[in-house]
Amino acid sequence: MPAEVLVMCSACGRPQSAARRRCAFCNAELPEAPLPAVSPAAPTPTPRVSPLALDLGNRRALAVNDEQLSFQGRPGGGPALDVPWSRVKRLEWRTRPYFEALGLLAFTALGFWAPAQAVRFMAFAAGVIGLLLAVLYRHHGLTVELEDGTRMQWPLGMAIRGSAREARLTAARAVLVDAGRARGIPLGGSGA
């Protein structure tokens, strides 16, 4: 129940409800009630992010928490790159087929001119392997754009479609979507 605010009549000195304009006893005009002190609004808490620590293999890792994004990208180890959420302007997740494997088709083309049947067969097999790799594997990467316009490319690696590794990468993307949405940071790019 809210407390009633009282003011003192300046003419007769009796307490009155601040809701009235005139004194109930002497009909004098009442002074305005002082406004209650406004407490500063508590900052809206940023929703918590499910912490994520994803081992990408080959000593690489991606970590997401309430304060920052971290990426360990050097295959040989070394310090992680930590980016505070306050500096992140935009995120972009890229998923694409493993197009580099299509380079094996060049051996197929060269194999047409090979004099030996065995060489032609091996060239044809290399082309089939290249096509299969391009269809089955997907390359994942994350671009982090900072408020000053800097764009960092984080290669997250490759995964076979439907594999446990791809499921972990998809889960990491979902955590990034939630974390970005909570902070007003869009996550664009091709989905997993």
Comma- or semicolon-separated keywords:
3 helices, 10 strands, transmembrane helix, four-stranded antiparallel beta sheet, membrane, 2 domains, alpha+beta, 192 residues, transmembrane, 30% strand, four-stranded mixed beta sheet
Topology diagram in text:
Elements: E1 6-8, E2 15-17, E3 52-57, E4 60-64, E5 68-72, E6 81-84, E7 88-97, H1 105-111, H2 117-136, E8 137-146, E9 151-160, H3 164-183, E10 187-188
Parallel strand pairs: 7-10
Antiparallel strand pairs: 1-2, 3-4, 4-5, 5-6, 7-8, 8-9
Helix pairs in contact: 1-2
What does it look like?
- The chain crosses the membrane at residues 97-115, 121-137.
- Keywords: Membrane, Transmembrane, Transmembrane helix.
- This protein starts with 5 loop residues before the first strand and ends with a strand.
- Strand 3 and strand 4 (60-64) form a beta hairpin.
- The protein has helices spanning 105-111, 117-136, 164-183, and strands spanning 6-8, 15-17, 52-57, 60-64, 68-72, 81-84, 88-97, 137-146, 151-160, 187-188.
- It has 2 domains: 1-36, no CATH class; 88-191, no CATH class.
- Helix 1 packs antiparallel against helix 2.
- With 192 residues, it is an alpha+beta fold.
- The strands form 3 sheets. The chain has a 4-stranded antiparallel beta sheet, with helices on one face. The protein has a 4-stranded mixed beta sheet with strand order 9-8-7-10.
